[in-house]
Specification:
Helices cover 33% and strands 19% of the residues. By secondary structure, it is of the alpha/beta class. The protein has a single domain, classed as Ureohydrolase domain (Arginase, Chain A), CATH 3.40.800.10. Strands 5-4-6-11-10-7-8-9 form an 8-stranded parallel sheet, sandwiched between helices. The longest helix has 23 residues.
C-alpha cells in the first residue's frame, strides 16, 4: 500500500490527509491530544451520499457531527474516564469519488487498511452506509471478523435500482467477506425476509430488544466473539430521538437500549473499529447532531476503558 509520513500529513494511495485542528476536529481537542502519530483512535470523515435515492444530504453529516462535538463534556460519567487523553485524531475528509460507488468503497478500504497497519482504532463517520463496506473489508480480508450491524433495515438486497453498490445492499456485500448479526431491524422486504430464512442470517429485531434487552444481548454475545467491527446506522434509533435520517422507522431503540448493548459488546469483545453513519442534518434541529457526536464519544469511552482494564462485565 502506497503511504508516506510527514509531520501532520498522511498520504495514502495518492490521497493526502491532514490532521484537523480546533475547531475542525472531533471534540475540539488541542494538538497534544489530536496528532496522528500519538493518537490511539482516528476519526475518518466520509461525506458521501451518491447512492442515496430518497433524501440526499447525509454527506453533510460528518461536518455537523464535528461541529456538535465541540460542545461535548469530555469526561464520561458512566465509565469514569476522559478518553480523549488517549488521543483522538481527526483526519481531513475523504474526497468523494462520485463517478463510481465501487471505487469509493475501495478508497475507504485503503484508508482503513493503512490505519490498521498503524495499530489505530479507526472510526468512520458518514455519510451514507455504503462506505462502511470498505471499512469492513479492510479487516475481513485476512482475519476472522464478526460484524454487529445496528440498523432499522436489513440492507440485504442483491441490487437496488440496477446497482449492487447501494446503501440498500450494504450487508449483502458484507456477507461476501464475513459473518454478521443484525440488530434493531423493523423494516424489510419479502425478498430480504426470504434470504434471512434461507441463509440462517442472525437477526435480533427491534421488538426483541425492547421487550427483553437482556435476552437480546445474550443472543448478540453468543455470536459476537473475538474480533468485532460495529456498524451503526442511526435509523436504528427511534425517530422520537433520531429524526435526522433518510428513512426513519417507528418503533426503534432508545438511547439506553443502544448504549446498554454497546457497552457489553465492548466489554466482551475486541473492537477493531466502528462507524456511525446516515445522519441527515435537519435545519433548525441540532439535537440529532449532538446525539451522533455523543454516541461516537461513548463508543470511544467504552472501547478504551475495557481495552485498558482487560475485564469482562
Amino acid at each position: 500500500m502506497g503511504t508516506s509520513r510527514k509531520d501532520n500529513i498522511v498520504e495514502i494511495e495518492g490521497d493526502c490527509f491532514y490532521e484537523q485542528n480546533p475547531p475542525f476536529n472531533f471534540g475540539g481537542l488541542d494538538p497534544e491530544y489530536s496528532n496522528f502519530w500519538d493518537s490511539w483512535a482516528v476519526i475518518v470523515l466520509v461525506p458521501y451520499d451518491s447512492t442515496t435515492t430518497y433524501q440526499p444530504g447525509t454527506r453533510n453529516g460528518p461536518s455537523q457531527i464535528i461541529l456538535a462535538s465541540q460542545q461535548l463534556e469530555l469526561y464520561d460519567e458512566e465509565v469514569g474516564i476522559e478518553i480523549y487523553e488517549k488521543g483522538i485524531c481527526t483526519l481531513s475528509p475523504v474526497n468523494p469519488n462520485v463517478s463510481s460507488p465501487e471505487k469509493m468503497v475501495k478508497k475507504v478500504q485503503n484508508v482503513f487498511g493503512y490505519l490498521r497497519q498503524c495499530n489505530k482504532l479507526p472510526v468512520l463517520v458518514g455519510g451514507e452506509h455504503l462506505v462502511s463496506v470498505g471499512a469492513i473489508r479492510a479487516f475481513a480480508e485476512d482475519i476472522d471478523l464478526k460484524v454487529v450491524h445496528f440498523d432499522a433495515h436489513a440492507d440485504l438486497r442483491r441490487s437496488y435500482q440496477g446497482s449492487e453498490y447501494s446503501n440498500a445492499c450494504v450487508m449483502r456485500l458484507v456477507s461476501d467477506n464475513c459473518d454478521f448479526i443484525t440488530v434493531g431491524v423493523r423494516s424489510i422486504s419479502w425478498g430480504e425476509h426470504k434470504y434471512i430464512k434461507e441463509n440462517n442470517i442472525r437477526c435480533v429485531y427491534a421488538r426483541d430488544v425492547i421487550e427483553n434487552r437482556e435476552k437480546a444481548l445474550e443472543d448478540i454475545l453468543e455470536f459476537a466473539q473475538g474480533k468485532v467491527y460495529i456498524t451503526i446506522d442511526l435509523d436504528v434509533l427511534d425517530p422520537s430521538i433520531m429524526p435526522a435520517v433518510g428513512t426513519p422507522e417507528p418503533g426503534g431503540l432508545g438511547w439506553y437500549d443502544l448504549t446498554y448493548l454497546l457497552k457489553h459488546l465492548c466489554g466482551r469483545c475486541e473492537i477493531v473499529g466502528f462507524d456511525v453513519v446516515e445522519l441527515l442534518p435537519l435545519p433548525g434541529n441540532i439535537a440529532p447532531d449532538f446525539l451522533a457526536a455523543k454516541l461516537i464519544y461513548k463508543m470511544l469511552a467504552y472501547s478504551g476503558y475495557y481495552l485498558d482494564k482487560k475485564i469482562n462485565l
